[in-house]
Design a protein that fits this description.
The complex is a heterodimer of chains A (244) and B (390).
Chain A lengths: L1 H17 L3 H12 L3 E11 L4 E11 L3 E8 L7 E5 L2 E6 L4 E5 L15 H5 L4 H4 E11 L2 E10 L8 E7 L5 E7 L5 E13 L2 E11 L7 E10 L10 H4 L2
Antiparallel strand pairs in A: 1-2, 1-13, 2-3, 3-4, 4-5, 5-6, 7-8, 8-9, 9-10, 10-11, 11-12, 12-13
Chain B lengths: L1 H12 L2 H40 L3 E4 L15 E2 L2 H9 L2 E12 L5 E8 L20 E6 H7 L6 E7 L5 E12 L10 E5 H8 L4 E2 L1 E4 L12 E4 L1 H44 L1 H9 L4 H37 L1 E2 L14 E2 L5 H23 L7 H6 L4
Parallel strand pairs in B: 4-8, 5-7
Antiparallel strand pairs in B: 1-10, 1-11, 2-9, 3-4, 3-6, 3-10, 6-7, 12-13
The chains are: A alpha+beta (244), B alpha+beta (390).
C-alpha cells in the first residue's frame, strides 16, 4: 500500500520530467534540421483561382544567411535567379538581362504569385533568440503525436509576435506552424508532410504554405532531391553568379 | 484708306473663294479658342479640386517624406511639433499619418496606403465624420476608385494587414462606413482613411504625423525644425506642368490646321497675283508705287483673318458661350489615368486667350499674304499691263 502511494505520488513527477521545455524542443528541432549547407531541387505548385502553376528550381543554401536559387521551369521563368545574402535580396531576370534588388514595399509582393512573399523568404528569424517558447499542450497532427509550442516574441522588433509550432514528439520535426498578427489574427499557416529520414535527420519533402487572409489552396513546396553539408563554392553567393 | 476700300471690294468681288478661306480660318480660330479654353477650364477646376481635397493652402512634410518613394514612409513620421500644436488643436491645420498596408477584399491581396486623418477636420473635403461611427470593426472611409478596385461597398467588412513601427505584422477587420466621390484620384486610389488616433495606435506611434495640410487661416510665420514647408504652387507644380504639356501637345493639331488654312490663303494670293497681272500693271501705270500694290495685296490676304474674327464674333460667340455653360462630359474612366479631372469640364475663355489667339492668326495670315505679294515688286509694269506671264 505504501509502495502504491509512492508510485501514485511519483507519476505526475515522472510525466513532468518527460515533458521537455519549449526551449529544449526548439534546440532539438535545430539539431535535427540545421545544416551547414544544402543543395536541393524542388517544385513549387501555386494553386491559383483558375489553375495551378508549377515552378521548378535548384537551390544552394549556406545556413540561414545565404541562398541562391535558379529557376528551371516553366520556360517563362527559366533562367531567373535569386540571391539572398543576409537581409538583402536580388533577382536576375534573363529577359531584361538585369539584376534588381528587392527592397521596401516590393518585399511585400508575392513570390512568383505564390502565398509566400519575398519578405517571408527574408525571414531569418532565430526562434531561440527572438522568442520565449512554452509548451501549451499536445495534439495529433497527421497521425503523429505533437507538442504544441507557443512562441511569444521577446522584443517588439520581430515580424510575428506569436507563433505556434506543432512538433513531432519522437522525431522533433515541426509538422505545422502558424504565424499570428499582434492582434492574435492568424496570418499564415505552414504544414509539413512526407517526413523522410535523410542521413541522420528527419526532413519534410513537402511543405504547404497558406496565406490565411487570401483565398485559395495555398502553395505547395515539394523537395525532389536534397543533399546536406556539401561543399558549395563561395562564388555561388555573389551577384556575379546571377548573370552566369 | 484707299487700299483698305480697294482690298475690301476685291475680296468681296472674289466671292465664294474668299468666304471659303474665311470659313476655314474661322474654324481654326474657333477650335483653338475652344480647346485652349477647355484646357484652361480643366486647369482651373483641377486646381480648385486639388486644393479642396488634397493640398489645402500648402503642407508641412516630415523631412524624410517623399510621396513618390514609399520606402520613405517607414522613416517619415514624428511627434506633432510644438510650433504646430496650437494650429492643430484649433483645426487650422490637420495632421495626416501615413503607412503602407494590404487589404484583402474577398480573399485577394492589394497594396494600399493607410491614412490617418482627424474625423472632425475641415481643412480638406475628405468626409471624415463617419470615422466616428461606433463599430466592432475599425471604421474606414474610402473613395470611389478604391471601392471599385476592391469591389467594396458601404457596410462591407474586410481585413487589412499592416506593420507597426517595429516591423511587426498586425491585422484587423475594417468596415467601410463611407464611400466618397471626388475628382482627385491621388486622394482616392489605393487609399483607406482611418481615424488618426487609431492609426497612431495601430502603428505604435502616438501623437505622430507624416504631414500636415494647411487651411485658409493659417499664417506661416516660422520654420518648423524637422518639417519642410511646401507651398501651394510647389504642390501644384506637377499638375501645372502636365497642363502645359497638354497645351503643347494640342498645339500640334492646330499647327497642322493652321498650315492647311495658310496654304489656302497662300494659294489664293498666288492665284490672284497671276490672274490680276493686268490690274497690277494698271495700278502702277495709274501712279501707285510697287510698295503700295504689294500692301494692297497683303491687306487683301490679311483681311481674311479679320473677316474670320468677325465671323467668329457673330456665329462663334454664342456657340462658345453655350459650350461654356453645358461643359464637356468626359468619358467614363478618364480620371483613372491618375490626374484630377471632373466628370464635366467647363471651358474658360479669358480676354488674353481670345485676343492672343486672334492676333496670332492675324499675324500669320499677314505674313503668308505678304510672301507671294513680294513678287509684284519684281514685275515689269509694261509687261504686266499687257498681261504677259512673268
Amino acid at each position: 500500500m505504501k509502495r502504491l502511494a509512492i508510485i501514485l505520488f511519483l507519476i505526475p513527477t515522472i510525466i513532468w520530467a518527460q515533458e521537455p521545455t519549449g526551449k529544449e524542443i526548439l534546440e532539438k528541432i535545430d539539431k535535427n534540421m540545421a545544416s551547414k549547407s544544402t543543395i536541393s531541387t524542388s517544385k513549387m505548385l501555386i494553386h491559383g483561382a483558375r489553375q495551378t502553376r508549377t515552378i521548378e528550381a535548384k537551390s544552394w543554401g549556406m545556413g540561414d544567411e545565404k541562398s541562391f536559387t535558379e529557376y528551371l521551369a516553366p520556360a517563362r521563368e527559366k533562367g531567373t535567379k535569386m540571391l539572398k545574402l543576409e537581409d538583402k535580396l536580388w533577382i536576375y531576370s534573363p529577359g531584361s538581362d538585369r539584376t534588381i534588388q528587392i527592397s521596401g514595399h516590393m518585399l511585400k509582393q508575392s513570390l512568383m504569385g505564390s502565398d509566400l512573399s519575398y519578405e517571408d523568404m527574408m525571414d531569418n528569424v532565430k526562434l531561440l533568440e527572438d522568442y520565449d517558447a512554452g509548451v501549451i499542450g499536445s495534439e495529433i497532427v497527421n497521425e503523429r503525436d505533437c507538442w504544441i509550442v507557443e512562441l511569444q516574441a521577446k522584443t517588439a522588433e520581430v515580424n510575428y509576435q506569436i507563433r505556434k509550432v506543432w512538433v513531432d514528439k519522437v522525431r522533433y520535426i515541426p509538422l505545422k506552424e502558424e504565424l499570428y498578427a499582434k492582434s492574435g489574427k492568424l496570418l499564415k499557416r505552414m504544414e509539413l508532410f512526407d517526413i523522410t529520414k535523410i542521413g541522420n535527420r528527419w526532413y519534410p519533402k513537402k511543405i504547404v504554405f497558406k496565406d490565411m487572409l487570401k483565398k485559395g489552396d495555398g502553395t505547395e513546396f515539394i523537395i525532389d532531391e536534397i543533399e546536406f553539408d556539401k561543399e558549395i563554392p563561395e562564388y555561388i553567393f555573389t551577384k556575379a553568379a546571377l548573370r552566369k | 484708306m484707299l487700299s483698305l476700300k480697294l482690298a475690301w471690294r476685291n475680296l468681296v468681288g472674289a466671292g465664294l473663294r474668299t468666304w471659303l478661306n474665311v470659313i476655314v480660318l474661322a474654324f481654326v480660330l474657333f477650335m483653338m479658342i475652344w480647346h485652349y479654353g477647355l484646357l484652361d477650364g480643366w486647369n482651373q477646376q483641377a486646381n480648385k479640386d486639388m486644393q479642396a481635397w488634397e493640398v489645402g493652402n500648402g503642407q508641412y512634410w516630415h523631412q524624410n517624406y517623399d510621396p513618390y518613394d514609399f520606402f520613405t514612409l517607414e522613416e517619415s513620421h514624428a511627434k506633432i511639433p510644438e510650433a504646430l500644436n496650437k494650429a492643430t488643436t484649433d483645426g487650422i491645420i490637420t495632421p495626416v499619418l501615413i503607412t503602407q498596408g494590404s487589404v484583402y477584399p474577398d480573399g485577394r491581396i492589394q497594396s494600399m496606403l493607410l491614412k490617418g486623418i482627424n474625423p472632425d477636420q475641415k481643412v480638406v473635403a475628405i468626409p471624415g465624420t463617419d470615422l466616428n461611427t461606433e463599430s466592432e470593426e475599425i471604421p474606414v472611409v474610402i473613395g470611389r476608385r478604391m471601392a471599385k478596385n476592391c469591389k467594396l461597398q458601404e457596410g462591407d467588412i474586410t481585413t487589412i494587414r499592416w506593420r507597426d513601427v517595429n516591423g511587426t505584422f498586425d491585422a484587423a477587420e475594417v468596415k467601410v462606413v463611407k464611400v466618397f466621390n471626388c475628382n482627385v484620384p491621388s486622394v482616392d486610389a489605393g487609399q483607406m482613411y482611418i481615424h488618426i488616433k487609431k492609426v497612431q495606435e495601430m502603428m505604435q506611434a502616438p501623437d505622430e504625423a507624416t504631414m500636415f495640410i494647411i487651411g485658409e487661416d493659417f499664417e506661416m510665420n516660422e520654420t518648423v525644425s524637422g518639417w519642410e514647408y511646401k507651398d501651394f504652387d510647389f504642390l501644384m507644380t506637377e499638375m501645372n506642368e502636365m497642363m502645359k504639356m497638354k497645351k503643347v501637345g494640342g498645339s500640334f493639331m492646330y499647327v497642322i490646321l493652321m498650315l492647311l488654312a495658310m496654304l489656302a490663303i497662300f494659294d489664293t494670293q498666288v492665284l490672284s497675283i497671276f490672274r490680276r497681272q493686268k490690274e497690277i500693271g494698271t495700278y502702277i501705270a495709274m501712279g501707285m508705287t510697287r510698295r503700295q500694290v504689294v500692301s494692297l495685296f497683303t491687306v487683301e490676304g490679311a483681311m481674311h483673318a479679320i473677316l474670320a474674327v468677325i465671323f467668329i464674333a457673330i456665329f462663334g460667340t454664342p456657340l462658345l458661350i453655350w459650350l461654356m455653360s453645358v461643359g464637356m462630359s468626359m468619358p467614363a474612366g478618364s480620371d483613372d489615368m491618375g490626374i484630377a479631372i471632373a466628370e464635366t469640364i467647363y471651358p474658360v475663355y479669358g480676354a488674353g486667350l481670345i485676343i492672343g489667339t486672334s492676333l496670332l492668326v492675324f499675324i500669320i495670315t499677314l505674313i503668308v499674304s505678304y510672301l507671294p505679294a513680294r513678287k509684284i515688286s519684281k514685275m515689269k509694269p509694261t509687261d504686266a499691263i499687257k498681261g504677259k506671264i512673268q
